[in-house]
Design brief:
With 532 residues, the protein is mainly alpha-helical. The chain has three domains: 12-172, no CATH class; 259-410, no CATH class; 413-532, no CATH class. The protein has helices spanning 12-30, 36-66, 78-85, 90-105, 107-114, 120-130, 135-150, 155-173, 207-220, 232-249, 269-273, 278-289, 320-345, 347-351, 355-359, 369-387, 393-401, 423-433, 472-479; strands spanning 188-193, 199-204, 261-268, 308-315, 448-452, 467-471, 485-488, 494-497, 503-505. The longest helix has 31 residues, at 36-66. The radius of gyration is 38 Å and the shape is elongated. The model is unreliable at 1-5, 256-261, 291-309, 345-359 and 509-532 (pLDDT under 50).
């Protein structure tokens, strides 16, 4: 110390001047001249002084509130005065008033803070624990807690003592009928917004609300897979966001009642092909594609059911063995054509040293696995384009064979670039996926968003082939924040590629082509997922 002796202030103004000088000295040069070994002890002493300052402020504020001195400055409450004249936030002003009232109702705890035995933050916990007790019990329990804290007990030990005292009072006297003791009247939740539109939440929850929120966070805040590197706090944040989004999607928020019931009538293409008259319609449709007469319009749509919006959706299961048959037919046809040309060449072929042999196409067995897979998916894509879409086979069969309301006009499943996902396209994607399309994730559609595989800014369209269903974690976190990439294959399977070379498949690796991820982009094995 640079000075010796204690000086007692004669007035409040003297005390404030002395306190101001002392605090200024502690900041500079006091902090700068301390040795490292002295810093901890000084911090402990400053903590005690902080408690004394809090107790002194509460004493002045209690008098200020009781005298309604805030009215002389044109304010209606002590909180409003503190916010305006003290130049502090409303949250801080409210905290000071709450602390003042706690100290007023718990004088034993206030004295423990003023003498440095209990910190202001601990005092707030102790006062909250004994708040529901009647005044005589409260005084005795507060003293027990303060004395135990002064003896060196930690906060967990004090909580056990407070709970035991509370249960003893309930057993002897029963609860006060005018006070539920569950904190219901003190419940509140505040959502603040920072300058960058981020949010801060604070509040006091009832036990029922706390239990409900904890159950939601535990349920929705679990790890989503091996790629999930979020901390528990981050998972809980994302779980709260997901819970709110689920309420909005389910239309369970106010002013959303009365929405029409929607029925998606799923019709399998194979069953349409098996109905009487299907072959004639198919032939007529093929003839129309070839430029011949015979295109048939479907029946006019009748009025749908009064209480439901019925959307007919034709689905199919990709069978790539059919594509394999196509490949064999094409390769065989090319081989036969090449052979015929070689035979016609006659002596000319012999004279050129067997040019006909070189012209003959390879047999189906001669195709490599990679080449066959690439050809397989190329033909599959064309086959899907041939069958699916307005005025194509699936639509013609549905409109020509089914009665109202299942023969209504088809909708377009490729809308180019759109600011939103149309409802009919969103339903088609959900019917194809049935759940989050990330490999290994089974979150139902209610938990999912529609994601563009190729972003609109990069030329990606809003179409069935460019959109997938992803849950909140895999969409917002994995794709948009962690840099993962998802590939949707023609057979409805997916592969996810991580930023550090991770590869995850929704299916088994392609047979005979090495480990997953080593083959070409289209070489991803057999179909295992339903596709629309």
């Amino acid at each position: 110390m640079c000075t010796e002796g204690d000086t007692v202030p004669a007035t409040v103004a003297d005390a404030l001047r002395m306190a101001d000088a002392a605090l200024s000295y502690l900041r500079d040069p006091g902090a700068a001249c301390l040795l490292p070994a002295e810093l901890g002890g000084v911090l402990e002493s400053v903590g005690v002084l902080s408690g004394k300052l809090a107790a002194a402020r509460a004493a002045v504020l209690a008098r200020f509130d009781a005298e309604r001195a805030y009215t002389s400055d044109g304010h209606g409450s002590a909180t409003a005065w503190l916010k305006a004249r003290g130049r502090i936030t409303g949250k801080a002003a409210g905290a000071q008033v709450r602390q003042m009232r706690q100290f007023r109702d718990h004088p034993v705890i206030e004295n423990a803070v003023a003498t440095g035995e209990v910190s202001p933050s601990w005092a707030g916990e102790l006062a909250e624990w004994t708040r529901a007790l009647p005044p005589d019990w409260r005084h005795d329990v507060d003293k027990l807690l303060a004395d135990t804290a002064s003896a060196g007990a930690n906060l967990e030990d004090l909580a056990i003592i407070a709970r035991a005292a509370y249960e003893k009072w309930r057993q002897q006297s029963g609860p006060d009928p005018d006070d539920s003791g569950d904190g219901f009247d003190d419940r509140y939740l505040k959502l603040g917004t920072t300058l960058d539109n981020a949010g801060r939440v604070n509040g006091s929850l009832t036990p029922e609300c706390t239990a409900a929120l904890q159950a939601v966070l535990d349920s929705l805040g679990k790890k989503a897979g091996p790629e999930d590197e979020r901390s528990e706090a981050q998972r809980y944040h994302d779980a709260l966001q997901l819970a709110c989004e689920l309420l909005l999607r389910a239309q369970l928020v106010p002013d959303r009642a009365g929405a029409d019931t929607r029925v998606d009538a799923v019709i399998d293409l194979a069953r349409l092909l098996g109905l009487p008259g299907a072959s004639e319609l198919q032939e007529a449709w093929l003839a129309a594609l070839a430029g011949e007469h015979g295109y048939l319009d479907g029946m006019d749509a009748e009025v749908a059911a009064c209480d439901a919006i019925i959307t007919p959706v034709v689905t199919g299961h990709p069978d790539l063995t059919v594509v394999d048959q196509m490949i064999d037919i094409i390769v065989g046809h090319l081989g036969a054509s090449a052979g015929a040309e070689g035979d016609g060449a006659g002596a000319s072929g012999a004279a050129t040293g067997g040019a006909g042999e070189h012209a003959r196409a390879p047999s189906p067995e001669a195709l490599s696995l990679q080449a066959r897979q690439a050809l397989r998916y190329a033909i599959a894509r064309l086959a899907v384009d041939l069958v699916a879409g307005p005025d194509r086979l699936a639509s013609i069969l549905r409109q020509g064979l089914l009665d109202s309301p299942y023969n209504s006009k088809p909708v377009v499943l490729d809308v180019g670039v759109s600011a939103s996902i149309p409802g009919y396209l969103r339903r088609a994607i959900r019917l194809r996926a049935r759940h989050c399309e990330w490999p290994g994730c089974g979150k139902p559609p209610a938990f999912c968003d529609v994601h563009h595989l190729r972003h609109e800014a990069d030329g990606g369209g809003t179409s069935l082939g460019n959109c997938v269903l992803l849950c909140n974690f895999h969409h917002d976190i994995c794709i948009h924040r962690w840099g993962w990439r998802l590939v949707l294959h023609p057979d409805g399977t997916t592969t996810a590629y991580g930023p550090r070379g991770q590869v995850q498949h929704s299916h088994g690796p392609p047979g005979g082509s090495g480990p997953p991820g080593t083959g070409p982009p289209g070489d991803h094995g057999s179909p295992r997922k339903r596709a629309a």
